[in-house]
Amino acid sequence: MKITVIGSGYVGVVAGACLASLGHEVICADSDSEKIGLLASGKLPIFEEGLEPLLKKALADGRIRFTNELDWSIGQSDILYITVGTPSRSDGEADLTALWSVVNVNRIAHSARGRKLLVVKSTVPVGTCDSVEQLLRDHAARCRIVDVVHNPEFLRQGSAVPDFLRPDRIVVGCNTEEARLAMKELHAGIPASIQYCDRRSAELIKYASNAFLAMKISFVNMIANLSDKLDIDVDEVAEGIGSDRRIGPLFLQSGIGYGGSCFPKDMKALQTLGQSVGCELPLIDAAERVNAAQPHVILDKLKSALSTLRGARIALLGLAFKSMTDDIREAPSLVVSRLLAAEGAILNAYDPMVRRYPIREVAVHDDMYLAIRACDAIVLLTEWDEFRLLDWRKVRETVRAGLIVDGRNMLALDGMKAVAEAYGLTYLSVGRPAVVNVAIGPADPGTFNRLSARL
């Protein structure tokens, strides 16, 4: 099939490369000429595991092209696949400016040749696709769109390629058999069931899915905060409830809360949608409150462990909102950084993928051990694997004081008890018992090797 992907941001590039790998002929269009030039040369403006080789192969095979000539690209394909961004407005509603710029009657009437299928991949409020179709029907003589479909994306940053090619399910909101058959052909080769439903249901499915996952994170963080007060290990609690098949273990990792470009935005949009129709959504409101408060847990732990934060040197390990991405949008690290800066702390940071950071009080280093040099505390904010492989002897020799605050509960508690004892470290996490050691004596030279095996 011939497909024009409109919008070459994160979703657009992933979708374009993956569709090309399935054998489709893809044109990716975007108004950003610099980005288009970069992509056309096989280089990515983002980091996403496995995407670059997929893109380079599609380019080499002649399956994908990039252009900033949107009008031309519309005329070249059977399917218009819209992946433009829909960020939050100040009132919480989704900003559909980019979408309406694309779904421009004059543009489509002038550029389209023959009948087309318009697939809205972007996350949009309920009723948006109906409005798009109505607009096009009002100008049917000029816009020969066969149908409008909503096909929400469920990509996770860090695993977007397998999420696209091997998803749990595919949701297609459409109103005609012709559109249904076209979408079935589009996804041929992807081993997943397709749920066909009406467009409004598909639009709500995306918001409801993200909201449920966000609530699950806030729920386990609420239980973690209770566990802190009761001196209970929340990991044991999470394992116990996650073993129930009705609940499942995913998204039960406690820590500093969710962030990124989707969950916060979609939670706000769902709240706004409820308000617009007079429907209260108290669970959504509560999940947002828990998430907003969670970074303060890290601040409180640091305050209780250090005599003062003013002048304290603190190293932040991890800035991205999650591992396997360089995305810092709505990252919990932003909140933690601002809180610590307001307390007068001196902040160093290291993230394997983040080099530019918007908070001027944070000095970003490209070497982890430079970032922790002479620090009073290390705070783990992103669950990168390399932080699980820290050389604890080198850490102890590098820092000024041995306080580790794990905001992601990424280090095994039993292993850290042994490490803390050997190297005189204090290890604090979220919803798990503290590991406190005040003695700072030299470790047996063979200790680290033995401890590594236990971690």
Automatic annotation (TrEMBL):
What Gene3D superfamilies has UniProt attached to this entry?
Answer: Cytochrome c1, transmembrane anchor, C-terminal (1.20.5.100), NAD(P)-binding Rossmann-like Domain (3.40.50.720)
Task: Recite the UniProt keywords alphabetically.
Answer: NAD, Oxidoreductase
Active site (record annotation) = C262
For NAD(+), which residues are the binding ones? D30, K35, T86, T123, K265, R329
Entry keyword annotation includes Kinase? no
Enzyme type, top EC level: oxidoreductase
Q: Which residues form the UDP-glucose/GDP-mannose dehydrogenase C-terminal domain?
A: 315-413
Pathway, according to UniProt? Answer: Nucleotide-sugar biosynthesis; UDP-alpha-D-glucuronate biosynthesis; UDP-alpha-D-glucuronate from UDP-alpha-D-glucose: step 1/1
Q: Which reaction does it catalyse?
A: UDP-alpha-D-glucose + 2 NAD(+) + H2O = UDP-alpha-D-glucuronate + 2 NADH + 3 H(+)
The cross-references to SUPFAM superfamilies, in alphabetical order and at most eight, read:
6-phosphogluconate dehydrogenase C-terminal domain-like, NAD(P)-binding Rossmann-fold domains, UDP-glucose/GDP-mannose dehydrogenase C-terminal domain
Gene Ontology molecular function terms on file: NAD binding; UDP-glucose 6-dehydrogenase activity
Q: Write the Enzyme Commission number(s) for this entry.
A: 1.1.1.22
Gene Ontology annotations of biological process type: polysaccharide biosynthetic process; UDP-glucuronate biosynthetic process
Annotated family: Belongs to the UDP-glucose/GDP-mannose dehydrogenase family.
Name it: UDP-glucose 6-dehydrogenase
**Species this protein is from:** Paenibacillus hemerocallicola
